[in-house]
């Protein structure tokens, strides 16, 4: 009993009315937006058909069909599962193989980017920090684009994103380091490093000799969920299941870092070691999102800051709020990106940019300078 209490005390925040409202509202938004995402499109269906497809007995009563859908034909057959998906109705096939995985990827991308942004803001003690602004997203995106353009294999995308994001963040730290770092230097170094990697991404386009590769690369740079499937869900789910528990466990260390380096050291923390360990966690979350969705900007900035204004700076509560609000933002943005212009789809990163850009400018106007927490 005492062990269970300790685990619950470490992972679960104290839930009050505000946090419960964020969780309930965000969950409702995700569910409603998911239903809209699943119903509308080139193959439209009434909500009754959507409901029947989601709970089709042909899927839920046949583990082999469910495994084949989620794992894919190749992986399922390697495990001795050989189900024929032709038995599914058209509506069930569309829902389960095309639209449901898109919603799942959006949920995981939103959670990862929101958590990564919150962690980076604690590490830098700067509410303007995010994976995008610190250059991590640009570095990960450059590595992913290189992997796509030179056809190195889609299975390498998570590793490429992690390597690119790590390299970019290390470069930011090296540029900002002067016997230590400050929030101003970290943010400015992140902007410079991000610009460099964006230029490198543009340079890679000169090596593209295929229109298909060009369209794929452009889609990644803009941040898009078009064409994602269960393969992408499998790519993002493992890092997410690692990042989320570890970030909740590290919430107390993040709170200590907010006190400043001097106080953190006085409390016995090895600041630089902890900072790099937490940076690795945030980079992994960013890499997971970039590897399946490309450069979806501003989620890591907008969500942590918005949640913080409601629940305060306690990181267990902040991270818990981000885990609900992040998916809500990305799922809604993807619905707007896919359905907002009629038949034309735009990248989800365009929508989050239109939301996050004005929010960032408002935040700058309310901030005297790049102030710390």
Question: Got a strand count?
Answer: 0
How big is the Rg? 21 Å
- Unreliable stretches covering 5 or more consecutive residues: 1-5
The percent range for helix content is over 70%
SSE order: HHHHHHHHHHHHHHHHHH
**Structural class designation:** mainly alpha
Largest sheet: none
DSSP helix count? Answer: 18
> Roughly how many Å apart are the termini?
37 Å
Could you please describe the fold and organization of this structure?
The chain has 373 residues and is mostly helical. It has 18 helices and no strands. Helix 2 (17-39) packs antiparallel against helix 7 (90-124), helix 8 packs antiparallel against helix 11 and helix 9 packs across helix 15 (271-293). The longest helix is centred in the first third of the chain and has 35 residues, at 90-124. The protein is globular and about 65 Å long. It starts with a helix and ends in a 7-residue tail after the last helix. Mean pLDDT is 85; it is low at 1-5.
Structural key phrases:
373 residues; disordered N terminus; globular; mainly alpha
Structure, briefly:
The protein is mostly helical.
What's the topology here?
Blueprint: H1 2-11, H2 17-39, H3 47-54, H4 57-60, H5 63-71, H6 73-78, H7 90-124, H8 136-149, H9 157-176, H10 183-204, H11 211-222, H12 230-249, H13 251-257, H14 261-266, H15 271-293, H16 299-311, H17 315-339, H18 348-366
Helix pairs in contact: 2-7, 2-17, 3-7, 7-12, 7-15, 7-16, 7-17, 8-9, 8-10, 8-11, 8-15, 9-10, 9-15, 12-15, 12-17, 16-17, 17-18
